[in-house]
Design a protein that fits this description.
Layout lengths: L1 H20 L32 E3 L3 E6 L3 E7 L4 E5 L4 E5 L8 E7 L2 E3 L1 E5 L4 E11 L13 E5 L12 E3 L1 E4 L1 E3 L4 E8 L2 E5 L1
Antiparallel strand pairs: 1-11, 2-7, 3-6, 4-5, 5-9, 6-8, 8-15, 9-14, 10-12, 10-15, 13-14
């Protein structure tokens, strides 16, 4: 019975991923240019094929967020920054990432997991954005595998009991011990979780 349930959850997630990849609001893009070295020193590991999901162990906050926390800003071709101080999160939109003013939104999800949803959903950027998570206030340790960001298309993949967070992409990033932060590139929007 459990195996049928697990298979049903995977099929549902595959359907969600397929719908996400077929989103008509996705904008076209040229070959992305790198985020400046000072912001991110790694590259996108590359998307897993649709339907291939990987379990990751989420980085957690010492004090869980009681509710979702959001911020938004209209950012154009000159670039800009979006901050969520309550969650220790900063999003840097470099110049040239979008061609026209775009309503950016980021939401830190309630609970202990360090997870975020971004809007406009499905947007692909001309240049990668830089996402930075402060590690103070989290249960970060150097002992497990290196931190990564995981792409999730829907909140339903975040808490599959006993499996962990299911992601369709794993993105390498950089831990800066001096600043106590983790930074990773974002080439397209939906949801991202910081995890091992």
């Amino acid at each position: 019975m459990f195996m049928h349930w697990k298979k049903g959850v995977r099929l549902a997630v595959v359907a969600i991923l397929a719908a996400c990849s077929a989103d008509p609001t996705v904008t076209s893009t040229t070959a992305p240019t790198a985020v400046p070295q000072a912001s991110v020193q790694s590259v996108l590991a590359g998307p897993s094929p649709i339907g291939v999901l990987t379990a990751m162990r989420p980085l957690t906050r010492r004090a869980p967020l009681r509710q979702d926390v959001s911020a938004s800003a209209l950012i154009g071709a000159a670039g800009g920054t979006l901050r969520l101080p309550q969650a220790g999160f900063t999003l840097v939109v470099p110049a040239g990432a979008v061609e026209a003013p775009t309503a950016f939104s980021v939401t830190a999800l309630a609970g202990a997991d360090v997870a975020y949803e971004f809007e406009p959903h499905g947007t692909v950027f001309l240049r990668p954005l830089a996402a930075m998570q402060e590690l103070r206030g989290t249960r970060h340790t150097l002992l497990p595998a290196p931190l990564k960001a995981g792409y999730f298309p829907d909140r339903a993949t975040l808490s599959i009991s006993g499996v962990g967070t299911m992601v369709s992409e794993q993105i390498a990033g950089v831990v800066d011990l001096r600043r106590s932060s983790f930074t990773w590139p974002i080439e397209h929007f939906s949801g991202y979780i910081v995890a091992w």
